[in-house]
Every structure is written in C-alpha cells, then in structure tokens.
Design brief:
The protein is α+β, with helices and mostly antiparallel strands. The chain folds into two domains: 113 residues, no CATH class; 145 residues, Aminopeptidase. 44% of the residues lie in helices and 15% in strands. It contains eleven helices and seven strands. The protein has a seven-stranded mixed β-sheet with strand order 1-2-4-5-7-6-3. Helix 8 links the parallel strand 4 and strand 5. Helix 1 crosses helix 6.
C-alpha cells in the first residue's frame, strides 16, 4: 500500500491529502532523518515540534505497520478502521487550528498503533495494556471503590484488554455481540501469557443511569456483558460530549445529576 492510498482509505478529504502530500514532498529529507532518529530511539514523536510534520511522520510509521496488523489475523477493513484513529485526531487539530496536525497530548494514544496494541472491531476499541485500578491511590476525585473479591486474580499490572466505547449511539446489540465475539477469538489467538480479562471504565455501565432507561434500550443489553466491580458518582454532568446527542440519555443527564458517574466492568474470556 502507498501513502496516497492509505490517506484516501483513512477518509482524508482532498484538501487534507494535498496538505499531507505537500509536507511529504517539501520536507522529504527532513522526514527521513526524523524517522531514522525515531527508529534509533534518539528522539520521540514529541520532539517533532511542527504538528503537521508530526502527522506526516506518524502516517508513514502507520503505513509501515500495515503488514504487521494483517499478520496478526485482521482483515484489511479492520486495520484501516483502527488506523482511522490518526485521521480522527488530525481532524480535531484542524477544527481547532485550521490545518491538520497532531497535538502532543494525542501522542500516547496514537503510540498504541505504532506498538501494535490497539484494535477496533465495530463500535468498540480494544487496547492491550496493564490493569490500573482507579482508586483513591490514583485519583483525587471520583475514585472508585472496588470489590476485589469478584476477580481476585485481577490485580494492578495484570495484562488486560482495555475497552473503549467509540460512540454510545452505535451500541446496537448485534454489533456489540459481533465485536466481543471477534475480540475473544482474536485475543485468544495472540496467546499472551496471563491475558484473560477485558476491562471497561465507562459511564455507559453506571447503574443509576442504566436503570432509568427503557427495558429495551441498547445500554441495558450492553451492560449485561460485564460484571461490575466498582463505580463512582460524579456530578459534573460532562463525562461525555452531549452536544450532538438527541437521545433519552441526554434528557436524563440534564434532569438528574445523580445519574452521572462511571463504573468499571469486567469480561473474563
């Protein structure tokens, strides 16, 4: 795959592709040097100060990871869907600054792609990482009180798959079931020692909210996939972006701050 083809499949508009093409051509030699320094671990991506140049280097690095992702057993469409995380972050930069680039604060997240530890299957995102309990030792506010008796072998630094809901409006039952089925099969196939838990920290699992929803609401069926091991109320009402939400969830949030919170759910596989 060529870089032009990748940028097209990631969904960059023509204007953005022209911008990327310009940087790749005008700074070809500089990008080559930066990549060599990056490979030798003499610099990090954070050392690249120009956000657009940073994006150019990341795209070339991501392109080099394509075959590695395919070799793990993913379909082309699944790899591209995962790589779209780069485009999404680049567009956030464009919306705020007027041109595409990558913010420094987005580098730790995008580093998962370069490390081959992030995967997208449908409405859910999966990251290979280590368990961190967001309790009072870690969090100043909204820390979670955990019941460690439910999964006694789940401890700090245990290998886990950390889940993220890409968009709560896409959690239709069939799509969630297909995603989790694919993830179980995929991660078992990686044969990572000690990997047997999927963990999700999310407001979508917070029981006071879910209990207010209609019996046939997709979040009710979504929550049933998880065993809850802790939760925390949070009255900020801003745990997720409601600006484009027109669902009953927004109405509930705006009318009752007691439904604001986050819960930790676990799936053992």
């Amino acid at each position: 795959m060529k870089i032009e083809e990748l940028n097209h499949e990631l969904g960059f508009c023509e204007d953005s592709r022209v911008h990327i093409r310009f940087y790749l051509y005008m700074y070809k030699e500089r990008i080559k040097v930066l990549r060599e320094l990056f490979w030798r671990k003499e610099i990090t991506l954070a050392d690249i100060k120009d956000p657009a140049l940073r994006l150019s280097v990341i795209l070339l690095e991501v392109l080099d990871r394509y075959d590695e992702y395919i070799a793990k057993g993913l379909y082309h469409s699944e790899v591209i869907d995962t790589f779209k995380a780069v485009k999404e972050k680049a567009m956030i930069h464009k919306e705020k600054e007027g041109y595409i680039g990558i913010y420094l604060e987005d580098l730790p997240y995008l580093r998962h792609i370069l490390d081959g530890t992030i995967f997208r299957f449908g409405p859910l995102e999966y990251i290979l990482t280590k368990m961190v309990f967001l309790d009072k030792r870690i969090m100043d506010k909204c820390f979670i009180t955990f019941d460690h008796t439910i999964f006694p072998t789940l401890k700090n630094n245990t290998p886990i798959v950390l889940l993220r809901v890409r968009d709560h409006r896409l959690l239709e039952r069939k799509r969630v079931e297909d995603s989790l089925h694919k993830a179980r099969y995929f991660f078992r196939g990686l044969q990572i020692s000690g990997l047997s838990f999927m963990v999700l920290y999310s407001w979508t699992l917070f029981e006071p909210l879910v209990e207010r929803l209609p019996l046939d609401h997709e979040l009710r069926s979504f929550q049933k996939h998880f065993t809850l091991i802790g939760s925390c109320a949070d009255d900020t009402k801003t745990k997720f972006d409601l600006s484009r939400d027109t669902s009953i969830i927004k109405d509930i949030y705006l009318s009752d701050n007691k439904v604001s919170g986050v819960a930790c759910g676990v799936i053992r596989f």
